[in-house]
Design a protein that fits this description.
By secondary structure, the chain is of the alpha/beta class. It is built from 8 helices and 12 strands. The N and C termini lie far apart (49 Å).
Amino acid sequence: MKKKILYIEDEQYLAKIVKDTLEMKGYEVMHRKDGNKISDVVGSFQPDCCLLDVMLPHTDGFAVANHIHNIDARLPIIFLTAKTQTDDLIKGFSSGGTDYLKKPFSMEELLVRIENQLKLTNRETSPTQSLPDEVKLKAYTFYPGKYELHTPTGVIKLSHRESQIIGMLCAHTNETLDRRALLNTVWGDDSFFNSRNLDVYIRKIRGYFAPGSGIEIITLKGTGYRFVVG
């Protein structure tokens, strides 16, 4: 059965090249110029992976990704954009994005990234599989299966990748978690790009735990991390 790609891009020339190439490689592609009625599109097409331009008419790709993430938190979302500042990366990952590809890009690299996301999604083992349904972290509670972190001030809905990283940290509480092992488990490789993504995610996850909470993610330079729950 063909894997389905939902592709949202308003630049018609680029969209035709990408769509035609993906179809030649055996994918079923649904192209849309914007994110209108995205809930209906995702529900009817049921894609295996989404490609989103960030600069879209009416609403940006981050907002569209957020809608998609609320429908299916496990659905991989690759952003295709010229925006690569750290703040943009954080915004993209916060909205449910799982990868980022800078324009202009080669079709070879796009294909590799799609294949990698599909492999990660279909992986039978998960960093959270060995965890209980409910993980108590002092005043916080992590629910791996629900992609939720319950805090003293409310519930944080986690992305699939955030849940994976927190799951790895929880599995190594008060121990050293090797950075390369974390990258290989969550992303499938420890490339420079994925390493940068991890830095963004760690920075964001740190912000979920309030100062004085007794919970801290300590970076061990050249080694990895220590998830301290005091």
